[in-house]
What we know:
The chain has helices at residues 2-24, 32-35, 46-53, and strands at residues 58-63, 66-75, 93-102, 105-115. It is α+β, with helices and mostly antiparallel strands.
Amino acid sequence: MSMTLRPLCSLLVALFLAVAVGGCAKGPVRHLASDVCMVKPGQTTRQEVLELMGEPDSKRMVAASTEQWIYYEEDKSALQAAPLVGGTFDPNGYNMVMITLDGDTVSTCRYSAYNQDEFDWQDDYSWQEIKK
Length: 132
């Protein structure tokens, strides 16, 4: 009986490994917080931004020669990385970079981040009663 279970166990282990490794296969990873440090207002060109950060997630014209590029990424939780069920969980927060181009050169570059636990400090003061 154990001889007939051995191929089945081997098949299950191989299937599990295929699913686990398949969940790790992803495209290029962008790290906005570190990539944006290489963008220098007044020096970095449009082409250099594309080489450093890739295509922006959105673009908009602010004026005739002024354009804003937005880069956006979710700060994924460990549960979101789980194969098959990861899409059902919410991210931990968001990172965003807004780059303003005047002509062909970066004029401003702003990084911002939001973490869902950012305002938890307010709960620390719940014991204080506010009188109206």
